[in-house]
Amino acid sequence: MWYFYSPSIIYGEDSIDFLENITGEKCFIVTDKIIEKLGYLKILTDKLEKFGKIYEIFKEVIPDPREEGVLIAREQCISYAPDLIIALGGGSVIDTAKTVWVLYEFPDLTLDDVHSFNNKLYDIGKRSKFIAIPTTSGTGSETTNAAIISRLENDIWKKFIYTHKGLTPTYAIVDPLFPLGMPPKLTADTGFDALSHAIEAMVSNWRNEFSYAIGLKSIELVFKYLPLVYKDGENKEARDFLHQAATMAGLAFSNSQLHIGHGMGHSWGAIFNTAHGRAVGIVLPYVTQFLLNNPDEGDNTVEIYAKMAKQLGWAKWDEDEKKAAFLVIEKIKELQKKVDFPTKLKDLGISREDLEKNLDSLISCCFEDATVVMSPRSMTDEYFRKLFDYAFEGKEVDF
Ligand SMILES: [Fe+2]
Questions:
Q1: What is the mean pLDDT of the chain?
Q2: CATH code for position 237
Q3: How distant, in Å, are the alpha carbons of 14, 22, 54, 177, 229 from that of 235?
Q4: Residue 284's domain spans which residues?
Q5: 99 with 220, same domain?
Q6: 277 CA to middle of ligand 1, Å?
Q7: Cα 20 to averaged position of ligand 1 atoms, centre (Å)
Q8: Is there a single domain that holds both residue 168 and residue 204?
Q9: Is the pLDDT of residue 185 over 90?
Q10: Which of 69, 146, 171, 256 fits as disulfide partner to 163, beta carbons 3.0 to 4.6 Å?
């Protein structure tokens, strides 16, 4: 038995107008101050007013949201008692809203009760529906059943992943109007986040045919449209397709899981405060090479990457499997170059000394990250140590 979870997805120009068709009139909006400043919050509230809905706003979400913020929003949500919760923002906003939704629906629970084995959570949605409206094209959070919230432990802000199928939003409204104003650097970072989601999803231990198919299309769209949008952020058609690609990548990984690229990215981000998409995008070619070097003869990662390269038109159908598979790394590097993306962790301005000082913490964060068990190649302390070292220096992975 397998399964594929997805919200109802409304996408393309003017998809925001679908709000009119969703029953419920008392809306609790979760967002942040940047979204308000960009004028996006006003676009949403104008629409809600036009459609005869009333609302209250929580706009205090911060990047890498913390448990304290979630609890404050939950209190506000409980006292307002909405029948619709609307998240307008990037991954941090949507993740916060997901946890607010679950804690509003089940006020007797804490965040620690939000996990895959809590069957009670399948009953979510009795008090409110949850609508996610992404304003960036990357996290895929509008489709996923996971929320990442930080908690301070041993002086490090550790990211905890709360996962349950019940956390899948009821609706995802993927309107290209919102990412239209994203600056080039943020466009590249979030685009590489989406690309990492799609590629990791296709080889993860829970890979499946649905995730493969959607991941493949997402990769095709990212490679075609990210360079266009990077050069011309106002290109509406390209924005629309890149926005769709991010949502597709979200669906792919939500249903098959991510692995060590994200494990390393989460760890690096927690310790050095690097933007998530930037961290996972930098390590992506190193992790890909590491997986292709897997000596386990039963592993079929080479076959999967080779098929990917052939289906995407990067390799001829009769090309040698290994050669075709390694083309995926070349293509990722080419795309990095096209959008002025850093190619090694050292480019982030972190010194070798800082890396050495934090290496043990980085590795232990990787092992604490839920993604580690999804790696198609079994991980060891030494592998992570070397991967950080090689990705830092920009060396070819030869192990
Ligand atoms: Fe990600």
A1: 96
A2: 1.20.1090.10
A3: 16, 30, 33, 11, 6
A4: 182-393
A5: no
A6: 6
A7: 31
A8: no
A9: yes
A10: 146
Ligand 1 center–CA 376 separation, angstroms: 18
> How much distance in Å is there from the Cα of 211 to the middle of ligand 1?
16
Average pLDDT over residues 143-159: 87
Beta bridge partners of 133: 88
Ligand 1 center from residue 253 Cα (angstroms): 9
Place of tokens 């989406």: 194
Is the same domain home to 137 and 189? no
Q: Are residues 138 and 245 in the same domain?
A: no
Give, rounded to a whole angstrom, the gap between the first and last alpha carbons of the chain: 36
Q: State the number of CA atoms in the 13 A half-sphere of 40 facing the CB.
A: 26
Q: What does the pLDDT read at residue 270?
A: 85
CA of 228 to the centre of ligand 1 (A): 22
Q: Taking the complete model, does pTM exceed 0.90, yes or no?
A: yes
Tell me the pLDDT tens digit for each residue of 321-351: 999 999 999 999 999 999 999 999 999 999 9
The domain tally of the chain equals: 2
The alpha-helical segments, DSSP class H, found in 1-66 are: 33-37, 40-50
